[in-house]
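Researcher: Here's the sequence for the chain we discussed earlier.
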Amino acid sequence: MRQSSETGGERRQRGRIWRGLAGLGAELVLVIGLGLSAPALALEYHLTELPTLGGSSSQAYGINTAGQVVGQAQTASGSWHAFLYSGGAMTDLGILGGSESWALGINNAGQVVGWAVTASGDGHAFLYDSGTMTDLGTLGGSLSWAYGINDHGQVVGWADTAGGDTHAFLYSGGTMTDLGTLGGPESRAFGINETGQVVGRAETAGGDEHAFLYHGGTMTDLGTLGGWWSWAYGINDHGQVVGRAETAGGDTHAFLYHGGTMTDLGTLLGGSLSWAYGINNAGQVVGWSRTASGDQRAFVYDSGTMFDLLSLVVSGGTGWTLVEATAINDRGQIVGWGYGPNGERGFLLTPVPVPAAVWLFGAGLVGLARRRA
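Model: Thanks. This is the structure I predict for it:
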């Protein structure tokens, strides 16, 4: 028999440590039993109201990992201009010669994409980088919009063709590429991830509109929730896609698509309508839903549950109605727009750290285990 090299004192000390850890485990079971679960603690937010550009309204549509926010805001003259909100400061991104612009997406390098009116009165997709707004042109027609951009600088959106149809595009390295359709005349792209997968909606040969996933030159039909149509708006780096689709009963519901399966995310409080716009790499989804009473409310979907976002705001939310949540980053920050004490405004929701009391409670349990050891 192999002999242990431990002394009797060492064995007694090891026993006390194991008994302490066992006791700690019992207390942790108690914590779980009290309902102090990690997701519930994580889903609390502080609300920051976004300013305007001198006018009365603002709306937020995109956010990167650094917390930089983009959207549109009214100027003192009443025009809507694209903005970049960073470090508490609101920057007017300008126009393309016309009167208005919208910013819809931003990557982690701070490059912004959107839509702006040109001097001729047409709306063109733009890329804003280092103080310069560049017109991305069209696919031969007169109009284009840019919705998403990844960290490689690849831009997606839609543009008119010379034949008058609207097609999804991928802009990369100075070239705008037509992504085609699902057999019908039109398509639009709304989101792109870091692997270059693109999502949007396209018309089928039968005239229906279906959500698609485009990658490697192939456009895949994602189907519906039993109805006739679907649109995809966002995709994360795991290939999880979100959007909205018609159900067999004719309602419109937010969906999450992954691994060949489209899952109905439901609605808030018995409503019949919901849309999903954005998803982060943790699988948290944001969008909006109508309640049974007809009210429109921003939501976050986490761990199988759809939450009314306003119910999770623990500071800064007095007097607010959150109408739409449009994007979420990998830090869990959410942007959108609603109505606050100062009128229609964009908002930034920042997760609140786990309450100090909970950390102290946890620290007390660890201390208890040490004392028992």
